[in-house]
Amino acid sequence: MNLGDTTSSARLFNTPLECGFRLLFVLDAGKAESDLQRLISYDYLIVHSGDVDGGPPSLHPAVPFRGTEFLVRRDLVRAGLDFMFSRELLDKHHSPSGIVYAGTALTKAFVQLLSSRYAAALRARAEWVASSFGAMNDDDLSRFMSRNIGRWGAEFDRLTSLRGLDL
Fold this sequence. Notes:
This protein has 167 residues and is mainly alpha-helical. The chain has one domain. The chain contains eight helices and three strands. α1 crosses α2 and α2 packs across α6. The N terminus and C terminus are likely disordered.
């Protein structure tokens, strides 16, 4: 992965760099170590916060079938975390339950340097994710995601079906 490539073919959306960047905010807000599966859920929730009843507006525009993003995020999240770890922006270590990730003093210093509107929006959603889901145990978070993932993005199906009706 060449992150220094500035050609017109350089892609930023849904890359390990973008994902790792988001997760730095999540790890800083969460104050607790998290495993990969929890961070996959958090990454989906921080981007599509508007999917959750009472959540803040989504960070990115709604797209059809976005719930399927959750199912294919594992490699992207892992690569993003590994990239940030290689830059010493987060901690990764083994625990009795497996590999866990945590923010460090450098994580906090890095995210505090960022002051754009996007960074402020990311920070607010990361704090919302941490306060809304941080106290959930892994099983409860997994059940929440499983119960809802199929309906997130499905509103586009309903709209498409309605367009085909002659009223």
